[in-house]
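Re: the 311-residue chain
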Amino acid sequence: MLNLKENKLIVTGGAGFLGSHLVQSLIKKGVPEKNIYIPRSKEFDLRKKENCSKVVKNADVVIHLAANVGGIGYNQENPGSLFYDNLIIGVNLMEQARLAGVKKFVAIGTVCAYPKFTPVPFKEDDLWIGYPEETNAPYGLAKKMLLVQAQAYRQQYGFNAIYLLPVNLYGPGDNFDPKSSHVVPALIRKFIEAKEGNKPTVTIWGTGKATREFLYVEDAAEAIVLATQKYDKPEPVNIGASFEISIKDLAKMIKQIVGYNGKIIWDTTKPDGQPRRKLDISRAKKEFGFKSKINFEEGLKNTIEWYFQQK
């Protein structure tokens, strides 16, 4: 087991949504703050190789969370930059980490890497049985290349790189920007604004039939810490809560918690995205003892409360 307290850690994306919770989780585990370095994008554009080289210098462990990411609309509008940015950052960072003699590289992938029609629950062995859902394929495939790179580097160089596949995350600190937010924060904002503006209806993309699995961000941070400490194998690992909820039921739940009394209109001209998402999480439990703790409704209430406090 890797003793994190005695190592210098680099957390790319450490000031972001998942990253800030991960850093707090590391500190709670006793990692001194001075041992955690968070490179900021204003200072280091990680698409440039020389910046990746500077960032990983003297690091023992790299946890790579930094990504260009967004919801369905953002994915549709920016497929080229999503592919390029995520691919080039991952390739450069892992290569420079290898050259710098980093002991362990923790690559954070995405559930979007899975094929569009993956049997449910998604098993890691099914990652390559088809093409990802079209709206997020460029992003999903770019992040999937981290797995290819990690396995190739382990085979050729003995480089200890692992690959984790978190499902859709939500929680306090999420991105609520309507241009790039994911479904949970997007719906929370819509219902709150509709309630405050006394709007009679809320319009939501798609049919509402698609299902999603959501993992509370603090649970995701805990899983990454456990994997960093205990997991050293080439196979990818799903990180999730192993449940699914339809977007229609999700919308009803958020509507009820927010206390909005108007009507929901489904804009069926807009895409649903992947039809279903639910992960098989048995590998994470077996390999490093991870099981999610936060109940979904409780997590939603925490997230909504946090959003109200920010307004």
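The mean pLDDT is 96.
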